[in-house]
Amino acid sequence: MQGQSQQQAYDRGITIFSPDGRLYQVEYAREAVKRGTPSVGIRTPEGVVLGADKRRRSKMMEPDSVEKLHKADDHVGMASAGHVADARKLIDVARRQAQTNRLRYGEAVGIETLTKSVTDFIQQYTQYGGARPFGVALIIGGIENGRPRLFECDPSGTPYEWQALSVGANRNGIREHLEEEYEEGMTLGDGVDLALSALATTNDGEMTGTGVDLATIDVETEQYVKLSPEEIDEHLHERDLHADQAEEEAADDEQGEDAADGDSDNEQ
Questions:
Q1: Helix 188-200 and helix 229-238: axis angle, to 10°?
Q2: What would the pLDDT profile of 96-106 be if each residue is shown by its tens digit?
Q3: Cβ-based neighbour number of residue 56 at 10 Å
Q4: Whole-prediction pTM value?
Q5: Three-point CA angle 244, 204, 177, nearest 5°
Q6: CATH level 3 topology of 22-56+63-253
Q7: Gap between the Cα atoms of 101 and 98, Å rounded
Q8: Closest C-alpha to 93, from 130, 128, 132, 134
Q9: Are strands 76-82 and 69-73 parallel, antiparallel or unpaired?
Q10: Cα–Cα distance between 138 and 243 in angstroms, integer?
């Protein structure tokens, strides 16, 4: 009981470290991220792929109202997991920084510079009283000097650079899939397929074009391009990940099992 009361005393204030050096409110913010639907980022030599699971709570919701991927600048995209309202605030911070850089220096902002501007803003909310940490994790990807870059921003305000990563629910399972399937020389199209297969690990292999967001930023054009639901459906069909196909295959398997049961009954 005494240990619990001590923890409760330290987790009430964001500015107070516990005796073992922990900031409980930051840890709670990470738990909020785990409750969000997953987002993934893939870096390839040809560009960056961002993907997000945007399943609706109800089929009555408009699919376009669920926002998981965002354009920060022509050459930068962002994906989020966690509290959507917190994500919107940080995306606005990133967009202002990108536009300020263009106005002040006449050039596109660097991906690493942009990421550190966002994480510096996040970190302030872990050090000063009267506010809570952001309950969201971000993936920031884009092209910098002709080179693809991919970063993660976590609720502590720490930036990490990755070849491939996921944030949100089932992060460890998706990371294992990425580690097994990722290849350094893959094409941008391969990156799209890998992003879809990674997201499918949390959907029992069943997805639709309206339930997934995908965007690419390729090295040649350095332009953020969001794929349409029809284009996503094509990729899902090619990898046998579409919900319609999964239902058909399940029905075929069930028919096969029924036939096998009939055969076994006859043999008896």
A1: 80
A2: 999 999 999 99
A3: 13
A4: 0.86
A5: 125
A6: Glutamine Phosphoribosylpyrophosphate, subunit 1, domain 1 (3.60.20)
A7: 5
A8: 134
A9: antiparallel
A10: 28
